[in-house]
Amino acid sequence: MSDRTGSDPGLGTTDALAAAPVSGGAIRSALRGRDHDGRDRERRGPVAKLRRLGIGTSWPAKVSWVFLVAIVLVALVGPLLISADPVRQTSSAMLPFGSPGHLLGTDDLGRDELARLVHGARPLLFVAFASTALAAVIGTGVGLLAGYAGGVVEQVLMRAVDLALAFPSILLVILLVAAAGPGTTSLVVGVGVSLAPGLARLARALAARETARDYIVAARLGGTRTPRVLVQEILPNIAGPMVAQVVMTLSVAAGFAAGLSYLGLGIQPPTPDWGYMVQAGQEFLYSAPRLVVLPAALTLLFVVACNFVGDDLRDALDPKGTV
User: Fold this and answer.
1) Tell me, what's the pLDDT at 52?
2) pTM for this model (two decimals)
3) What are the pLDDT digits (tens) for 250-272?
4) 3-class SS at 153?
């Protein structure tokens, strides 16, 4: 009996079995079984979920996310880990880097520079986040109502927004803060009100686009009340680009907060604040540049990181553009 099979005289029984077709399902099962645990965990991890959303795909975005999270953590838990008092004056003035007990040295009043930098992050970030939240609430509310209502309501609201935008933002902030007096509350209100018009214009454009869509027309014809249409129908569909713009607005708010503290209209001493630290250290710019460079660099990096994170969120949440 011949051990050849098939029409090919050169193919034996053993060779034929080896050449037998294998189903795709069997191959996939074998691959899954080989590294099921490790790769499935990777696919289910938080990093993989962010990648599926398109967040943090470029290296500037990754670095910015890490820096932003690190700064927030320093502001929240850093003061609990630093034992030095940031406002206590000592006789150890102008100590350099690496001095015993003072890693970053001391300022002209003998205050620990590291402690002041760590404690100074919290006031700046509080003002930036609080004022941005206030701007988001005001701007989104006005823009939603204007874009949905249209007509006279839209004209009145948007002309008021245009009037606010006619003033330079920094000038409007200075006027509002100067009128209310320096301090954290006036700074939050001033920065928040000055940044709200820009968010209102974006919200109005997005809301007007969504209002013309069929699902909104159907909701209105079905008798759905206006507040419900705005909050449950339109707002979730414009949240992506609005969140991205709010994060980018955060960088502007941080810059305003630091600038006004530098001018003496923001956080008041002896509370440590990066903007005020730059103003207090400029007298020693040549003899001890670290007193200016360190708080200024941290503020600049925070502003840049917010811009990169905002760009990353915009590309991920609204890849086709906002209008």
Assistant:
1) 54
2) 0.78
3) 999 999 999 888 988 888 888 88
4) helix
**pLDDT averaged over every residue in the chain:** 81
The CA distance from 162 to 127, in Å, is: 25
Distance CA 267, CA 19 (A): 78
Residue 43 tokens read as 């696919």
Tokens of 219: 């909701």
DSSP character at residue 136: H
pLDDT in tens, 100-114: 888 898 998 999 999
Packing angle, helices 290-317 and 274-281, rounded to 10: 150
Which bin fits 184, alpha (ψ -120 to 50), beta or left (φ > 0)? alpha
Residue labelled with tokens 């991890």: 45
Report the amino acid identity of residue 268.
Q
Q: In the chain, what are the helix, strand and coil shares in percent, each to the nearest 5?
A: 70, 0, 25
Sequential DSSP letters for 78-113: HHHH--S-TT---S-TT--TTBTTBTT-B-TT--BH
What is the average per-residue pLDDT within 17-21?
44
| Secondary structure (DSSP) of 238-258 | HHHHHHHHHHHHHHHHHHHHH
Count of C-beta atoms within a 10 Å radius of residue 240: 17
